[in-house]
């Protein structure tokens, strides 16, 4: 038996159906040396080198595998594939021009790929998971909703528990092994099992738990903490020292705790620094308070995402203020921690060594920049995090590709990548079965529409027209499927189909009250009418709740705000709030007045704008000039004069509403006072 292993332990031969040579073995783990075992049946004792050809592109030259008895320099070799192995033998032909039929005894060599079944520890994995598999098949089909989902999550956790138990046992065997080669082999298997559990855990969060925005980040934090666990040993080492604050890894530990969102433990470590260093005690206390007050969505609370976003925004602004004021300027360590908590990408990338991998970077980045990230947006952040972390210095590994496919909610690609990377079918078979029980795989029409697209591409005359008709008939049952269809259309410059899909997704988002997503899709569709509709919903929500949702989107509209007047107004009105928050009152006042006088603001929103002007009118310094005050007065009189513009019944509504009448009187009084102050101020300036 000869087994070909890749440099990181996952390898063997290609999947069933591959031809032309052995696969060089892509990997999910690192650290194991190339290894080969061989057994010949009745062959000579001499050995020669046999190079196994690679079926796919490699990072380097394929590893040469030694097979005892093979004399490939003198004899031509032949091979044949079996169900799980390859047979290699010498022929009666030599490598000279003339063949010689020399009597001899050809030798057959069996080269196996699924050597995992011969491992005693992995056999335990196969045996124990069998019971879970059988139990899963007996789950009552009548169970629906939360009860069925809870059962499926429990089954998934049971599978992961078996993998972890096997991994821990393999780890102990690796430590106890006296032979370095055996130790490397077992360590390689530990890395493989760890990668398997990492992938399974992420699939559980995204596909089985189907965690929504808010709880999603909590699950991802647990996922990272479970699989990046070196910090626990470091924590024990530092706390076990005579003086933790003077330990060489003290600040390294605090930084890792902050990167993992373990802020309570980070605060405890900072308290030790404060106790032993009076000069930094005040700074440690302030940073500790920022850690303590960071808003987090706790499981079981009734707090809404909007409330969390509002609290988080205020907390983020407070962190920014301390950084800008130079509160931590005298302590590089504390200043760096504050930058991390602000989600500063440069500060995060400086901690590459502590983050270890791009998906840890991703989760930390989400924690401190986008804590209410929606599942549908995950792939954008995942791709950008991978690109930023690698920085063009290296290419993604097989594990990276699998995780990225999961973040893209491409289950088919996850299964495909795992089938290529792993040396046996246990993982793929059991994960696929579980996902099928979750109704995520429909075998009768699985991805057939995608196959049709490829065939239409190669029809020279009617392929394009047929593809357009085919696309229109694909049911967009899920947003993930819609994204795939959209990607296909964009790759082929099918503009009308792209607009149609974006409009459908925008309408679905509005029906589900996901205004940020609806606005994004309407902008992508370049649909001015729908963008106006969604902008009106944003403004109505603001009037009802007093705050905007999806601030990141509104703050970064850029040129897209020119799509419609209402969208332009939404972006500019948000800019007014930002200027007011930054205490740039003169700029805010000018912008507010221009929104009204340019007629870009909907008339129904004028009273809100005038009410926003009240705090500016009541400032100690004069913000509005006399001319600007006259303009505001004119707008107020137009609104209340009984001559509604465009047939809007605003005057009658205002006259009938006591609250609005009170607002009008307050505005008139404030405007009159401000006009008097502005005239006095401007007269004084002219006299001087």
TrEMBL record:
Residues 1-42 are annotated as: Disordered. Keywords: Membrane, mRNA transport, Nuclear pore complex, Nucleus, Protein transport, Translocation, Transport. One of its GO terms (cellular component) is nuclear membrane. One of its GO terms (biological process) is protein transport. It is found in: Nucleus, Nuclear pore complex. InterPro entries: Nucleoporin_Nup85. It comes from the Eukaryota. Signal peptide: none annotated. Residues 8-23 have a biased composition (Gly residues). It holds the Pfam family Nucleopor_Nup85. Functions as a component of the nuclear pore complex (NPC). Belongs to the nucleoporin Nup85 family. Component of the nuclear pore complex (NPC). This is Nuclear pore complex protein Nup85.
């Amino acid at each position: 038996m000869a087994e070909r292993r890749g440099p990181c332990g996952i390898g063997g031969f290609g999947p069933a159906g591959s031809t032309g040579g052995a696969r060089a073995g892509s990997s999910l783990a690192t650290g194991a040396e190339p290894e080969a075992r061989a057994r010949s049946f009745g062959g000579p004792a001499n050995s020669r080198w046999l190079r196994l050809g690679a079926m796919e592109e490699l990072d380097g030259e394929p590893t040469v595998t030694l097979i005892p008895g093979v004399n490939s320099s003198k004899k031509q070799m032949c091979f044949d594939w079996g169900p799980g192995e390859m047979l290699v033998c010498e022929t009666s032909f030599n490598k000279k021009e003339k063949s010689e039929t020399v009597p001899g005894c050809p030798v057959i060599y069996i080269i196996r790929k699924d050597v995992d079944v011969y491992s005693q520890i992995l056999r335990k994995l196969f045996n124990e998971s069998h019971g879970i598999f059988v139990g899963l098949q007996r789950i009552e089909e009548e169970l629906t909703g939360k009860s069925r989902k809870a059962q499926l999550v429990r089954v998934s956790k049971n599978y992961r528990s078996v993998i972890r138990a096997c991994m821990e046992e393999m780890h102990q065997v690796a430590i106890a092994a006296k032979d370095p080669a055996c130790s490397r082999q077992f360590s390689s298997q530990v890395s493989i099992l760890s990668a398997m559990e990492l992938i399974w855990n992420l699939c559980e969060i995204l596909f089985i738990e189907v965690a929504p925005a808010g709880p999603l980040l909590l699950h991802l934090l647990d996922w990272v903490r479970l699989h990046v666990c070196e910090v626990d040993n470091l924590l024990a080492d530092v706390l076990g020292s005579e003086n933790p604050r003077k330990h060489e890894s003290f600040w390294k530990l605090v930084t890792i705790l902050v990167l993992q969102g373990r802020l309570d433990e980070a605060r405890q470590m900072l308290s030790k620094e404060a106790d032993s260093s009076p000069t930094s005690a005040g700074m440690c206390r302030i940073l500790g308070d920022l850690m303590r007050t960071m808003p987090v969505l706790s499981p079981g609370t009734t707090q809404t995402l909007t409330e969390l976003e509002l609290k988080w925004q205020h907390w983020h602004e407070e962190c920014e203020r301390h950084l800008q004021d130079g509160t931590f300027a005298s302590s590089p360590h504390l200043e760096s921690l504050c930058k991390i908590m602000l989600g500063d990408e440069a500060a995060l990338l400086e901690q590459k060594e502590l983050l270890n991998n791009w998906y840890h970077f991703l989760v930390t980045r989400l924690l401190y920049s986008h804590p209410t990230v929606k599942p549908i947006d995950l792939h954008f952040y995942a791709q950008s995090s991978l690109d930023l972390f690698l920085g063009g210095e290296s290419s993604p590994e097989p594990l990276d590709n699998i995780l990225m496919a999961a973040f893209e909610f491409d289950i088919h690609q996850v299964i495909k990548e795992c089938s290529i990377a792993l040396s046996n079918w246990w993982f793929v078979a059991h994960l696929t079965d579980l996902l099928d029980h979750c109704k995520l795989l429909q075998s009768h029409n699985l991805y057939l529409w995608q196959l049709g697209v490829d065939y239409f591409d190669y029809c020279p005359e009617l392929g394009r027209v047929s593809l357009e008709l085919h696309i229109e008939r694909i049911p967009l049952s899920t947003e993930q499927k819609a994204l795939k269809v959209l990607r296909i259309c964009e790759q082929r410059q099918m503009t009308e189909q792209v607009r149609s899909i974006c409009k459908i997704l925008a309408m679905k988002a509005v029906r589900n009250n996901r205004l940020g997503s609806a606005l994004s899709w309407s902008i992508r569709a370049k649909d001015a009418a729908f963008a106006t509709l969604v902008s009106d919903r944003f403004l109505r929500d603001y009037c009802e709740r007093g705050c905007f949702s999806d601030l990141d989107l509104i703050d970064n509209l850029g040129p897209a705000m020119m799509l419609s007047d209402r969208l332009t107004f939404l972006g500019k009105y948000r800019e007014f709030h930002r200027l007011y928050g930054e205490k740039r009152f003169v700029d805010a006042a000018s912008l507010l007045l221009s929104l009204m006088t340019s007629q870009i603001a909907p008339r129904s929103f004028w009273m809100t704008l005038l009410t926003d002007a009240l705090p500016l009118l009541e400032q100690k310094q004069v913000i509005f000039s006399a001319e600007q005050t006259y303009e505001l007065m004119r707008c107020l009189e137009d609104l209340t004069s009984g001559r509604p513009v465009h047939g809007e019944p605003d005057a009658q509504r205002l006259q009938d509403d006591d609250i609005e009448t009170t607002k009008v009187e307050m505005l008139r009084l404030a405007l009159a006072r401000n006009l008097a102050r502005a005239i006095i101020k401007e007269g004084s300036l002219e006299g001087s």
